[in-house]
Queue: 4 jobs
Job 1
Amino acid sequence: MEPENFERSLRGFVRRRPFESFQIRFVDGESITIDHPEAVVFRGGVAVYISPRGEPTLFDHRSVSTLNNVPDAAPA
């Protein structure tokens, strides 16, 4: 994903009001579902997702393939 698209898209998904869960799909085929707006922090082109269990996942524009809505997700 292009750096500008990564940051703009991630910021847009996190700032939606009301917040809606979204999915980040990585180039290796793995994915994570972001279920809370404060679960992701990003700065300087790098982001970290903290799972409900407290496990961090670091990622940047090179590792992300797409960001997508989660079908039929209930707002948080």
Job 2
Amino acid sequence: MHAMTTITGISGSLRSSGYKFSSDDYSHSQLQISKFIKQNPKGLFANSEISLMAALMGSHQKGDVTTKIVNLRDYFKGSKPPKKINKLKNIINYSDGIIISTPVYFGDYSSLIRKFIELIRSDSKLLSTIKGKMVCILTCGAKRNGGQETALIYTLIDMLNLGFIGLGNGPDSTAQYGGTVIAGQKGTAFEDDLGMKICISTGRHIAKVAKLKRLNNIELKPVIHFWILQEKKRLASDLVMPILNRMNKKGAKTSIYPLYQEKIAACLACDICPTKTDGNKSHCKINLKTDYFFNKKQEMIKADIIIPTLVSSVKNKDVISVYKEFIERTRKIRRNNYQFTMKWIVPFILLEVGSQEHLDFRMITSLIRHNTMIYKPIILYLHKGKLLNLYEVHKEFHTMLTIYHTSFSGISKQKDQCLSDYYIPFGY
């Protein structure tokens, strides 16, 4: 095993420069990188490469990290067969974390990123070795609100489904979905100062977590909470029980929280939550003793793995849901310096064929903002009262627990190393 943590940047730009990067190119300050870019001929670098340079600069700041940029254009050239593909596979295999940077094409990632994903999908050995590796995403669009966030989410979802563990950018910036940059003309990304800072935060965050994962030699029994947020005639409750029992036999400590039965008041969007009072605590105006967040909040933050569980039905009859109220009220937990930091989020959706609520996407995009780690959604398909893939669901839960046990079981105990000094309130 190589001694240093390795973070690899993957550029999915068709305009990549062909420049052969060395670690010196992104081991300096943001100002030095800007000067380096300016000193080169206009338009030398693609904006995706500049975004990666900023991110890998952030990774270098964590020390004992080796970094590199890979241009997918060097491997995939139009309709021609890919070149030196074993070299690319080896780079992926020996990386502890991968940062993918893509330009935005109509709100989605580039064709080169698609070929990269297809490469991994087509190789069973590669699929096996990437399980549990971490990934972050950077996107660059020509305009503000130019599709950067949709491209981030689509790329993240596809990488999760391959087996990667998803991270966002760090809490020292905004703790969102990853890096978003505004740049149209080639070679101008460094002019977006906020975008560069968020890319730096993204690189810093994945390096920090990757280093903690490498140091992890603690095998603890994970505490797992199933949050049943949307239910239909106890369908989720009854199906979760055998999954829970199997996990207990594997050494986990599991609990079911039938939150759909609880009284959860809607967030008031008041002026108290963003205010620090009583030391470093954030307060909530809702103080009803019957409210779940008033008297049981402390239970929620004890979990290592959180499994938000929801039934998605074609017809809403008999569906009981508190998921929107619940997610909104976790705002207080986020503003209390990210109390869900480094917890795993594993969305579990019982999906009736024909339903299109996309609750798996929504759980990911809501809960990654808590500075968490995202495992791919597990979906149990239902059709006319039949469970279509129950065996595969049990197998996926087993795989998830195995990866956590072998590589991540001590990381949540070191979560303070993944926090900023305080929550930074960007806006309200």
Job 3
Amino acid sequence: MDNPEILGELDVRFVQPYEAHKAYVCPGCNRDIPPRTHHVVVVPVDAPDLRRHWHKGCWERRRPSS
């Protein structure tokens, strides 16, 4: 999802390398986020099951909301 803002208010959390124990796929670039990699978790407040893990750079470069 390029524009998670459409889901409403977001809770953005930074994950430190020592906290990252699993691999994820970044929705911004569709590439792996390996374990022990600093990244961002974005959780829609009204839909926490739709949380996604993003590379920090992909999150910062995502499409702005319209």
Job 4
Amino acid sequence: MTGSHEEHDKQAKQAILDNIEKYGCHLALLEADNYMPAFAYTIGLYKKYNHPEIICFGLPTDLLGALLNHVRDIVQAGEVLVPNKLYPGFLSGYEVCFLPVDEAFYADYLGYGGWFYDLSFDFPVLQLVWPDKAGKFPWEEEFNKDWKFYQPLLDRNTDFKFFEERNLGVYTTKQVLDGEPILFVYHNDDGDWQFHSSSEPDFNDAKLVSLECITKLDPTVNEIYFLQYGWKAWRNRAGDEWEYEEDT
């Protein structure tokens, strides 16, 4: 089994190398699920052109691919994309902007990239950020609030990685608030979150708090920011890696 896994890794890495050689980069495209938006990123721009890799969120994967291929064309022509500058030509009628990605997000979104670069995240990344139909960007007050969580801004908010408002009400228990570790997490079909220290909590002890309160009590819950609707996560003790699956 180990041999077949190693062979698969070898073939996958060779495919990435072949794409980089043939096209200038490889595109990792990840479809949306019932909670997370779609996103895509380049692999190889740094290796081949010494240019930051690029990641983009919240659009159909065919459009994400087209945007990143346009990035590739620009980089191949010798231009260096820089943060906090408006660029036309990516989306018809709109300018886009690039932000430097904080390394705290690399493991969350760039796993294949880290694997390709010899199990290292020692490479720069920029996030391509697109505006709403009024030309406003997510950090602007007038940005379309319905689109707020389509593209997380990876240059900030390293303390809170969920695709929710910080003041979202979530369920926990008195025991968790008194210091017992969070070992069981549920993201219900209706979007509610539950954070418990026991698999069978006494709901007479239930408390309603903000999601930000939970992340401050235990920052490691950020590690399961991606948990889909209808899924659960658990661990045996604080500090262990989370396991997760659909809650059937």
